[in-house]
Structure formats: C-alpha cells, structure tokens
Amino acid sequence: MYKLVKPILFSLDPEEAHHLVSGGLRSFCKLWGGKRLLRSIYAYEHPKLERTVFGLTFKNPVGLAAGFDKNAAFVEEMDALGFGFIEVGTVTPRPQPGNDRPRLFRLVHDKALINRMGFNNQGVDVAANRLRNLKKHHSVIVGGNIGKNKTTANEDAVKDYISCFDALFDVVDYFVVNVSSPNTPGLRALQDKEPLMHILNALQQRNHKEGISRPILLKIAPDLTDGQLDDIIDIVGETGIAGIVATNTTIGRDGLNSRRLAAETGGLSGVPLTKRSTEVIRYLSTHSHQPLPIIGVGGIHTPEDAQEKLDAGAALVQLYTGFIYEGPALIKRICKKIAHSH
C-alpha cells in the first residue's frame, strides 16, 4: 500500500508530507478498529524478539528514532505499526519554531535526507502532558530525547537539560542526551569531554526519585574521530550512564549523487550514513572495557542493514529515514529476519 502512495507523498514538500502522513495516521487510528487493523498488518510478534537492555524489557529491538515525533503526538500510532519502542523529541525547555523553511530535503537518488530543523518543538511541558495521559492506559516503552534551546548559551546548557529531565522523569522510560545535532549553533561543542561530563554528572545526581532511576543514554555524532570515541567510552564509564545512541546525522557529504541538494546545510541521514554508523558502533563495542549498551541508528533501509548493526554490537536499532523511504512494512521485515536468524 505504501508503494502506491509514496510517489504522491514524494511529490510534496517533505515537511508537508510528514504532517499529512502523521495526521492521516492519527485520524485512521481514531476509527473503530483502526489501531487493531494496523497492528494486524504491520506488527510482528515472536518470543525471540524480546530484549532486556539497561533494565528495560522491549517486545522487539526495532524502535522509532527521535525527530519523527518531536512532541509526543503519535506514540500510540507508531506503536500500532509495530515499533518496539518510541523515542520522542528532541524537546527543549521552552517552545521554539526551529530554523526557517525550507529545512528538510529529500535526496532521492541517494535514499537520504538533509535536515536543518533546529529542534522545532512545542516545549517539554506539552510533551510531558501528552505522555502523562498516555501512560495511564498504555505500556509502550518511550524514550525522551532532550536538548537545549537555541538561545541558551553553552555555559548554561546544563540548566536546560535538567529542566527537560525533571519534566519528563515520571513519564518516560529512558533519556537520551542530544549534544550531537548539527542544527543548533555550538551544540556539538558540548560533546567535548569537560562540558559533557558536567551535563551528564548533573543529570546523574538528579537521577533518583523515591528509589527510581532512569537509564540515561548519550547520542553522538558519526563525525567523531577515534580519539573522541575513546573519550566517549571513558565518559560513559566515569559518569555511569546507561549507554550510547550511535549515531546522529552527519555533516559529511562524500559520494552523494544529488549534487545540487548536497550543498544544503544540515545533517545528512539515510543510506550514505549506513557504513559510518556501523563503524562507530563496532568501534565503541570492541574498545569499551565493559559491555556497553548501544542503540544503533543511521541508514537502516533493509533487514540486512539492521542485522549488521546488531552484529557490530548494537543491542537495539532505530529507524527514521529508512522508515520514510521504505514504509512501515520495513519494521515487520526487520523483526522477521531477527527472529529467524541463527
């Protein structure tokens, strides 16, 4: 069915197409039996798919990456499509419109996207309220991807991360600290060891509430050097955070066919990121001195891509660009391959 509507969607502005699809999905799920029908078509269940990672039990290891559902508006709908977990955000303490449009571009010949959205979101309180209502009657695992507002100076960034952490603590199952988006000026400087340790240690100090703590993960860029990845491994050990999300989008443009669009600024995702993302996962997995839970994301467009990331050391995987290009059936195809792999 997706193959029939994809040409129509791809004829639209990418951001408009996103709103059309997500809004249509929400409307369909409100119909009697809508969610049940989607689940019967797209979801795949098998005992071998279950994973326990950083203390949470996932029904399957295929999640939705941050960026698709920035405001926690479509969690139930994404769950009906068969995702094992949903990561919402990136959210910031205060609402912000993001960068000027156009800010999302399809590189069709490369099966890729370039985005410079700029953390456009309605603010953490909106997401928290939606998730609070959801958690009353739904058990889907939700991650909260948190960032800083564009107007917040880097030296004050820790306050923004704490604000988002506190607002979401009761309504998410795990956190992802996003310091690796290329679309907020200066944000990637927070990946340096000293400011990153400061942020993560501050969050860990607050990471307990009536005996409850939440796994905190760090999302990193694919553009880090081996030396910087070694620093990341040390930081994980020293701060005691739960793991890594590898990787965010890249600022690299090597080997692209879409020459004109390649000049657009922003983060590149999709097939051109597949190899590098897997390399980062493998490096982190083989060089860490202890088992390091990794969520692998970046260029997963086939079941084989997902399996490669798992073989490289990822415990879970996430989709975004592959989900847009290949459609929701990709989730089921990946789950089937994982369940029947030996």
UniProtKB/TrEMBL annotation:
Substrate binds at K70, N115, R116, M117, G118, F119, N178, N183, N248, T249. One of its GO terms (cellular component) is cytoplasm. The active site is at S181. One of its GO terms (molecular function) is dihydroorotate dehydrogenase (quinone) activity. Pfam families: DHO_dh. Pathway: Pyrimidine metabolism; UMP biosynthesis via de novo pathway; orotate from (S)-dihydroorotate (quinone route): step 1/1. The keyword Flavoprotein applies. NCBIfam families: PRK05286.1-2, PRK05286.2-5, pyrD_sub2. This is Dihydroorotate dehydrogenase (quinone). It comes from Parapedobacter indicus.
